[in-house]
Amino acid sequence: MSTLVVAGLQWGDEGKGKVVHFLSENADYIVRYQGGNNAGHTVVFDNKEFVLHLIPSGILEKGKKCIIGNGVVIDPEALIEEIDFLESKGIKIKNRLFISDSSHIIFPYHRILDGLREKIQNIGTTKKGIGPCYADKYARSGIRMCEYLDRTIFQQILKNNLKEKSKVISNISKLKKEIFRNYSGIVKKIKDYVTDTSSLINDLVVKNKKIIFESAQGTLLDVDFGTYPYVTSSNPVAGGVCSGCGVGPTKIDKVLGVVKAYTTRVGEGPMPTELNDKIGEYLQTKGKEFGATTSRPRRCGWFDAVAVRYAVMLNGCKEIVLTKLDVLDELEKIKICVGYEYKGKTLAKFPSSRKIVENVKPVYIELVGWQKSIKGITKFKHLPINARRYVRKIEQLIGTKIRIISNGRSKEETIVVD
Ligand code: GDP
Ligand code: IMO
Ligand code: MG
Fold first, then answer.
1. Using one digit for the tens of pLDDT, what is the confidence trace for 200-227?
2. From atom 20 of ligand 2, which residue's Cα is the shortest distance away?
3. Of 188, 218, 251, which residue is a domain's last?
4. Which residues, by Cβ under 5 Å, contact ligand 3, an ion?
5. Is 175 in the same domain as 263?
6. 217: Cβ below 6 Å to ligand 2?
7. d(CA 230, ligand 3 centre) in Å
8. Model pTM score
């Protein structure tokens, strides 16, 4: 397969960074297609931990090239910080990173607006300005990379934007100064990375290059299909690659879904299998479930097969990576949610209505745990029988083959299932 989408199927933080890093070995290019620095993708190698926010995880694999597509929103200061950080660790970025000239720019006023809206809406956003930046994009008042790099045009568009924002933000002249304080330095640092990435990617497809599209967030945070309004402002579903990179649907060969062996969510919004008990605490501690971007504790709960089955459908994935199976090692009993009960009836599908998702009662089956460490196991057949049963049960419930199992943070701790 030449083009592969790696999509998160839950509420983000499924372990996409680890999985993409593992798969990057056999890829030429790794591409981000949506979201921004709200993402936090952790990659662990040589006992070092890297958290990537904007740059695809493949940058950590020697020689691989990375692309940030038009669907991504870019905070230039965050981008430079990430580039500088990686370079300080000896990772070469020059000639390995390509940024779309049509990507939209996040400005300080987007971050301020994000904070102001949070006071009213309480979505629990990352406050990185993601929602307000996408809102400007769709309102056709956004500033794209190609305009940002042209000082004259940039100044003209910014003037109108600041006029509009001054209705809700005070001291706009201070903000303008802030935007221009580092402007020349920023442009100098990023301009050589900027290009027409849709032409680039389509050329790569023609040349049969191996491309991985790395989603940020997860399907249940998708603005169209997630638990609206408790979602992000982009389309993490695999279909987002088409609009987020300028690649036609016929050019996508395969979609691989990434799911955690249990469920986590950071921020507000419904999560039917959430556990506010000792098991929830166990999952949080053992799984080190604290946000990679905001350090907030992640809410934890049992695996939700209803939600994942829905996500499998939306992404069209035929294969799955199951991550963090080792986190369940010590549990005596493990539950899986197999249905939602609402007003005495079992629902056939994941509900769209916010009121319903908030009030469903999960229906569980219970499996016996394996109570043994699975660290260091590299073959499926060597997993304890109850761990294999758990994996097979999930496959059966979501109707999809589990092709890869992750049993640790580094890429060596990965089991490819035959
Ligand atoms: P992403 O946003 O989907 O890339 O996921 P995050 O990096 O935000 O969160 C996943 C966390 O789980 C990171 O700290 C990873 O290092 C860690 N992780 C990934 N896979 C495994 C695994 O199989 N086992 C364990 N114990 N940790 C894992
Ligand atoms: P990765 O790529 C988990 C959540 C926020 C909030 C909602 C909206 O690491 O999986 P936003 O700042 O996007 O407007 O916030 O989305 N959120 C994530 N949760 N993982 C992420 O990214 C997330 N990115 C955003 O917590 O609930
Ligand atoms: Mg994350």
1. 999 999 999 999 999 999 999 999 999 9
2. 12
3. 188
4. 13, 40, 292
5. no
6. yes
7. 17
8. 0.98
